[in-house]
Amino acid sequence: MKAIAAVDKNWGIGKDGKLLAHLPGDLKYFRENTLGKVLIMGRKTLESLPGGKALPGRTTIVLSGDENYEPKAAEGARTLLATSFDELMAMLLSMEFAEGIDLEEDVMVCGGESVYKQFFPYCNEILITKIDEKFSADKYFENLDELAISGMLKITYESEVQEDNGIKYKFVKYSR
Ligand SMILES: NC(=O)c1ccc[n+]([C@@H]2O[C@H](COP(=O)([O-])OP(=O)(O)OC[C@H]3O[C@@H](n4cnc5c(N)ncnc54)[C@H](OP(=O)(O)O)[C@@H]3O)[C@@H](O)[C@H]2O)c1
After folding, report:
1. Position in ligand 1 atom list of the atom nearest CA 138
2. C-alpha 115: how far from its chain's center?
3. What pLDDT was estimated at residue 157?
4. Which of 59, 111, 129, 160 has the highest count of CB atoms within 10 angstroms of its CB?
C-alpha cells in the first residue's frame, strides 16, 4: 500500500482536527492520486472532510472502535467500516480476491496521525507534500528524511516548487 500526506517543515500534519494549510494544488494532487482507489482513514480524518463525508469516486474504509458508527458519504462515494486493524487487513484481502484490487498499487493510507503510525510499516511508497513553512501543530508524521539518511527509504521523485496563497511546497516520493 501507499501513504499520502502533507507535512510542514517539522513534519506536522494537523492542528485541532484540521489541516495546517489550504493548498488547492495539493488537494488536486490528492484527488489525482486517490481517485478510483481504496482509501484508509481514521474516524477523525473522515469527520474533518467537507461535510464530514467520504469523497466521491473512491472506496473509503473508515476505522472506528464504535461498531455502530455510520460513516457519512458524498454522492458517488463508497464507505466501509473497520473496527480494528486486523478487521481492516482482512477486508483488504477479501477485496483483493473478490474485486481484484492490487494491494500494493490501489490502497492509499490517508491519515490521520494514528492511522499513519499503524500502517506505515506496510507502505512501500509514501507521497509527501512538503510545505515550506513551520506551523503550530498537534499531529505529526514520521520524519522520512531521517529514514532516508539512514538508508531505510530512498527519495524517488521531487517536483518543482509549487506555490498557493503565498505558500511554497513540493511533492516528494519516498520508497522502501
Ligand atoms: N496533513 C495531512 O496529510 C493529513 C491527512 C489526514 C489527517 N490529517 C490531520 O490529522 C488529524 C487527525 O489525526 P488523529 O490521529 O487525531 O485521528 P485519525 O487517525 O484520523 O482518527 C483516529 C480515530 O480512528 C479510529 N481508529 C484508529 N485506529 C483504529 C483501530 N486500529 N481500530 C479501531 N479504530 C481506530 C478511532 O476512532 P474512534 O474514536 O471512533 O474509536 C480513533 O479515535 C487532523 O488534524 C487531520 O486534519 C492530516
Report:
1. 45
2. 9
3. 98
4. 111
